[in-house]
Structure formats: C-alpha cells, structure tokens
Specification:
With 432 residues, the protein is of the alpha+beta class. Helix content is 49%, strand content 11%. It has 3 domains: 108 residues, no CATH class; 114 residues, no CATH class; 169 residues, no CATH class. The strands form 2 sheets. Strands 1, 2, 3, 4, 5, 6 and 7 form a 7-stranded mixed sheet that branches. Helix 2 links the parallel strand 5 and strand 6. The protein is elongated.
C-alpha cells in the first residue's frame, strides 16, 4: 500500500542494513523532504547522499516501479527534477520526460507496521489505538493535544471569517450569526444559522426599545409564529392563544413595514428528542432578550476578561409569557428558564473562543489568539460520549481545551481512519 510506504519514508523507518540503490550504489537519507499532498512529486526538497554525492531535490514513491509509467510520469516534465524513486518492488527501469534515469531504492515496509496498520483499519473499537494510550509519555500527549487544539481553533475561526466576508466585514453581524447558530445547541444549529444570515438586524435596531416588537420580529422572521412550525400535538392548543395572535399581528405589520422576506419554507425546525428547554421557540426568545439587553455585543464579548464576565454577558431568560410556556398555548409551572452554567460554557467554547481567534487571525494579533486558548483552559471539559471514551482509555481531560482537542482528533483523524497523520497512531504503528 503506497500510503504506508509514504509513512515509512517520511518517518525514516529504515532497515538496519546499509541502503543500496537498485544499481548497487550506497545511499544515505539526510532529510526525507516535505510531504506534498497536492499534485506533483510526493516529497519536496529531500536530501540524500548517493555514492558519496549529495543530492537535493524531489522524491517520488510507488508500490511498484512500473507505476511510474502507469501514472504518466515518464511524459510529465514536473518529474524531471526527481533525484530518487523509492519503491517497495523494483519491477522496471524508470525514465523522465527529459530522458534521465533517476536512481531507485527498494524500501520494504516493515512487517510490524503492516500488521499494526491492519489492526487499526479493521477494528471496530474506538479509539482504535486504546491499548497504547496509558503508555504514552505525558510530553507527547500534551504536544499533540496542543497541536489539535490549534487545528480546531483555526478551522472554527475560518468558518467565522467566511461569514465575515459574506457580511462585508461586519463583525457585529458575524457574531450574531455565530451566536445564533450555537443557540441551536447542535440539532437546530443549521436552521438558526440560516435564519440569522437573513435576519434584518438594521430593522431590529429601530425597535430595540420595544421588547414585544423585537420578539415578534425574531419569532416571525424564523417562521415560528406559524402553526405548522410547531409540533402537531401543540397546534390545536396554540390556535386560541391570544399572545400568539398579538405577535402574529405585530409581525405582519413589521414585515410589511420593512418589506421582509419569509423564511418559513426554508427553515426546518426540529423538536424530536429535544427537551422542552431546547425547543426553538424558547431558544429564539432567549436570544431576543439577549439582543434587547445588548450585553452580548461584539465589543463587550471581545473585552470580557474572564469566564465569569462572559457568563454575566451571555446570561439571559425569556420574557414573562415564556416563563410559563415552552410552546404557544401549553402552560407549565413558572420557571425563569435561564441558561444553565453548562450551556453558557458551551456558548463561550463554540462562539466566543473561535471569534477571538478569528479576530486575532484577521489582525495578526497573537495575543488575542492566545486569549482564546487560555479561556478554554479556564473552562471545565465538555461532557459527551467522545470525551468519556478517551477518559476511559486513561487520558486526563481536565479543561475545555482538552475536550476540544479530542473532538478534533475524533472527527478529523479517527472518523477518517487517518491514523498515519496521528501522533498516537504513529506510536501504535512503531510497536514491535
């Protein structure tokens, strides 16, 4: 398998016997080069000593020498600079488009690497490398977790930078989209994001001093004032709800006033397997109250000094009607329905920290990026199945920085069976 050969070359898992090219010249690997994941030679700027002469250039790898011709490299000038062709099996000579014959090295993939790679690919266990986790050096674990956290923050910040571009550089609207998406808390995240991207913030700003109109604008623009947007079991009770009728009338007035489009046919709100506290009606009026208070503005969240400051800024509870309702027409015992500390932590983890990192990236502000990581280190780890599995293997997960790193590891490496790029996978493969 060619990618295993890439792995062996990249990590210099070389035989103890002296290396010889297929024509008998001695070979020493000084630097395997930079792995190229795009078109062109497999490794750039490698350094090898062949027969006493130092060569610097590109290296190509194949399972068999004959793959060189099969892949069309013999007619591709991009491969003229090849200084070495590394193969598992030498079954043919190779020639570049310029007529040169680069030296070839037969490099076997060690049996233990093949066996352990097969184990990782075939097992249904998760994590696949669980057996070696307790044996890993603390420094190795820490360095890999730090790298994974940086990866995750970079990826999540890039999503926010994409929103920023779509919003013509408006950080306030970008924050509104990010915050709305995360008010969906997973299941309704896509619907919240779609709604927020189209929400008329300019129109809302003109009525910010009127909580009833803001609530009508938030719920109406999300299509949540329509009976069909509610669970079938709740629609009958909602028909005679006076508060719903008042909101519908106000939304009709505001929609006409600002010529607002309707999104009710493009938003798909979910209720199945949701606890009432997470119903979209309640979440969106919580967000409306947060907007009315103005404590979660871009400037406020960016300058907040601690987790506690952010909790105070993001804390919200719905208007009086919703303290006795989860849906229109269905009453419950009075409850302020405030966001729990765990929910507030999730908003910080998924909204504020990526936003800090994105802003730092956009302005080359490393201190702002470091603040994002430090903030994660001040928050307790998320409690979910992914984290519990890693803890069961013996990993110490003490902060949200750790849990975010492990979520990145699962989604970008474990789920893709990309063990060859994982440092834990490397430790598993090199076992004897």
């Amino acid at each position: 398998m060619e990618k295993l050969l890439h792995y062996v070359w990249k990590h210099r898992i070389l035989p103890l016997d002296p290396l010889l090219t297929t024509d008998g010249q001695t070979l020493e690997v000084i630097d395997p080069g930079l792995h190229n994941h795009d078109a062109g030679p497999d490794f750039f700027n490698a350094k090898v000593r062949i027969g006493g002469t130092m060569w610097v250039g590109n290296v190509e790898l194949h399972t068999r020498s004959s793959d060189w011709t099969r892949h069309g490299h013999h007619t591709d000038a991009a491969y003229d600079s090849i200084i070495l062709h590394v193969v598992e099996t030498a079954d043919a000579d190779v020639v570049t488009a310029s007529g040169r014959r680069p030296p070839q090295l037969c490099l076997p993939v060690p049996d233990n690497v093949k066996v352990h790679y097969a184990e990782l690919c075939q097992t249904e266990d998760y994590p696949r490398c669980w057996r070696i986790i307790p044996q890993l050096p603390t420094l190795l674990v820490h360095s890999w977790m730090s790298a994974l956290l940086a990866e995750r923050l970079t990826e999540r910040a890039q999503r926010q930078l994409n929103w920023l571009e779509a919003c013509n550089g408006d950080w306030e609207r970008t924050l509104f989209i990010a915050l709305a998406r995360n008010f969906g808390f997973g299941l309704n995240g896509d619907a919240f994001e779609t709604w927020a991207r189209h929400f008329p913030l300019t129109a809302a700003a003109k009525h910010r001093d009127n909580p009833f109109q803001i609530e009508a604008l938030f719920l109406g623009s999300a299509g949540l004032l329509e009976l069909e947007a509610m669970p079938a079991s709740a629609q009958k009770a909602a028909q005679d709800d006076d508060y719903l009728h008042r909101l519908q009338a106000e939304w009709h007035y505001l929609r006409h006033k600002f010529s607002l489009p309707e999104l009710k046919n493009t938003l798909h709100w979910r209720y199945l397997r949701l606890r009432p506290q997470s119903f979209p009606h309640l979440r969106i009026v919580q967000l409306a109250q947060l907007y009315i208070r103005g404590t979660a503005s871009f400037a406020s969240l960016m300058k907040a000094a601690s987790r506690e400051d952010l909790h105070r800024a993001l804390a919200t509870s719905p208007s009086e009607y919703w303290q006795t309702h989860f849906l229109f027409g269905l009453e419950n015992k009075p409850n302020q329905k405030q966001l729990s500390p765990a929910s507030l932590d999730l908003l910080i983890i998924n909204t504020v920290c990526p936003m800090l990192f994105a802003y730092g990236s956009a302005h080359n502000d490393e201190a702002m990026q470091e603040r994002a990581a430090s903030l994660l280190e001040s928050i307790r780890p998320e409690a979910n199945a992914i984290i519990r599995q890693w803890q069961h293997c013996g990993l110490n997960v003490s902060t949200a920085a750790d849990s975010q790193a492990l979520i990145q590891l699962k989604r970008e490496y474990c789920d893709r069976k990309d063990c060859l790029r994982c440092r834990f996978g490397y430790e598993y493969l090199k076992q004897k």
